[in-house]
Amino acid sequence: GNSVTQMEGPVTLSEEAFLTINCTYTATGYPSLFWYVQYPGEGLQLLLKATKADDKGSNKGFEATYRKETTSFHLEKGSVQVSDSAVYFCALSDQASSYKLIFGSGTRLLVRP
Amino acid sequence: DGGITQSPKYLFRKEGQNVTLSCEQNLNHDAMYWYRQDPGQGLRLIYYSQIVNDFQKGDIAEGYSVSREKKESFPLTVTSAQKNPTAFYLCASSNLYSNQPQHFGDGTRLSIL
Description:
The structure holds two protein chains of two kinds. By secondary structure, chain A is an all-beta fold. Helix content of chain A is 0%, strand content 50%. In chain A, the strands form three sheets. In chain A, strands 2, 5, 6, 10, 11 and 12 form a six-stranded mixed beta sheet that branches. In chain A, strands 3-9-8-7 form a four-stranded antiparallel beta sheet, with no helix packed on it. A two-stranded antiparallel ribbon of chain A has the order 1-4. In chain B, strand 9 (87-94) and strand 10 form a beta hairpin. The A-B interface holds A 31-32, 34, 36, 41-46, 49, 51, 89, 93-95, 98-101, 103-106 and B 4, 6, 31, 33, 41-43, 45, 48, 50, 56, 58, 90, 92, 94, 96-107.
């Protein structure tokens, strides 16, 4: 079945450091891929998405490229801020999963001043 | 503004008691979902519904029940059969295409008295 694997956290960085959170997936079809962010005590917010191979999703300085050849969708940001501290979830959706979201386990990011 | 409203934000359950969590959306989405999130964990799907008067079990449906009498509403009942109900509950909705993201509410935190 479909699955998503994320790097384990926590990831601890200093402000203005470069961020990479790895995400790989297994899917039988052609899924859409998403990154969600969850701030403490809140629900999930869509950060960015990509719906086909080689698409790049971007938002608020974050980017991720849909790599079909490596089945990956790694999240990157060139210069993190303290306000980026949150939990980040990678997810996929496709017709084979009845359009349900399949989530990774989440990666906590802590950015220190 | 369109969105998803969950209520209450905090809820307490006594032993042997059923409690109902409310979820309302005004996004005109066909599909609605309930997730459970335990501390430091990812999201697990409880139930989902893709059309009014129909719903399917997710990965952890035991001890929970739902109804979908209106497109806008998808309440979740945590029954006394759920022996470990303490968790953060998230409701989401989406259109029924794989490239459409799910939109999340702000969650309900349920605790045992």
